[in-house]
Amino acid sequence: MPRTTAGPELDHLISLLSKLPGYGPRSATRAALHMLRKRDAVMRPLADALSKVAETVKACSVCGNWDASDPCTICSDEARDRSVICVVQDVSDVWALERARAHRGLYHILGGVISPLDGIGPDDLRIDSLSERASEIEVREIILGMSATVDGQTTAHYVTERLEGRGLTITRMAHGVPVGGELDVLDEGTLAAALKARRPF
Amino acid sequence: MPRTTAGPELDHLISLLSKLPGYGPRSATRAALHMLRKRDAVMRPLADALSKVAETVKACSVCGNWDASDPCTICSDEARDRSVICVVQDVSDVWALERARAHRGLYHILGGVISPLDGIGPDDLRIDSLSERASEIEVREIILGMSATVDGQTTAHYVTERLEGRGLTITRMAHGVPVGGELDVLDEGTLAAALKARRPF
Q1: Nearest one of B140, B35, B69, B3 to A98, comparing CA atoms
Q2: Which of B3, B4, B23 to mutate to test the interface with A (most CBs of A within 10 A)?
Q3: Model-level ipTM above the cut of 0.85
Q4: What is the pLDDT of residues B39-66, one digit of tens each?
Q5: Could you provide one GO biological process annotation from this protein's UniProt record (chains A, B) (predicted)?
């Protein structure tokens, strides 16, 4: 049943919008209405931005990061520390770490984690290219930045095995209490890890 | 501060997405990521649909409804009852009533309500064109479908005054308990109106 009376184009737009994360048919209808009211300020610029990004942003052939240039801005930044590669699951992890200015080295994006239940094995991830990069003479340390989930840690172990015996320092991000977080809402695993890794105050 | 490392185009897209209702910077970033993963299924079709709707959908010169054709599909539908016009605030009200198949007559969209606080007076609404339409020989009844808010009811009174003395039947939608609604969450005004307008069972 159509959501509007304005014809198939608008209903098609609403059905596309309702596939966006956080949107359903009602909120997509509201968003379409909002955009129709602000055609020049929102709707047309959004259409242009979507086309432009769809055409220009692609995966970096070195690290797998998404960028309009290849190699990406991070891989081609001469000021970054080329001896440290932080391995993450996804592009959004790179964005988060960069917003935090937490890492001054390079990245390697796996594109997911090993997940037998979802049919994702090591060959579906960018592990071969990580192995190649890790053999480069300048690389000294690999930081494992996968999620602290079962699949994330399985992947971290697999990657570690693949990189062993090359004299690389392999580290992982610390587990602990999130900064600004309250103890009573944290799970037992995090609390145990945070206590075990306690440090002098 | 940029949300991503993928260059200004993607950050511009995210800033546009974050202006949509229900979206902020974080959810807009997630939406952009989702679309980048589904370029052919979501991103490009969405860009095309937005451009197409922005170009084709416009206000009906008769009733103010949005449609790709002018007069709109409803105004040009010969099967509809031309003697009854339902006056609503907004296009989304037409869509809601049409989804409910609640009204088989025509509509008139005011484009808002009189709201002195927001600087919206009668001249900012499509009241003159309603007055003209109401003078047509075939029009017998005007249904006031404004919101049951102070501004909505002020507007309803103003419209009624403008249309008085022409032999038109002017009605309003009934107040009462929403179908499927529970009594204990309803406000006093609705409960009082529902009791007052009670009907034989």
Answers
A1: B3
A2: B4
A3: no
A4: 999 999 999 999 999 999 999 999 999 9
A5: DNA recombination
